[in-house]
Amino acid sequence: MEKLIEILNEIDDTIDYENEKKLIDARLINSMAVVELVGEIEEEFDVEITASELKPENFNSVEAMMKMITRLRGE
Question: Is residue 75 very low, low, confident or very high in pLDDT (cuts 50, 70, 90)?
Answer without folding.
Answer: confident
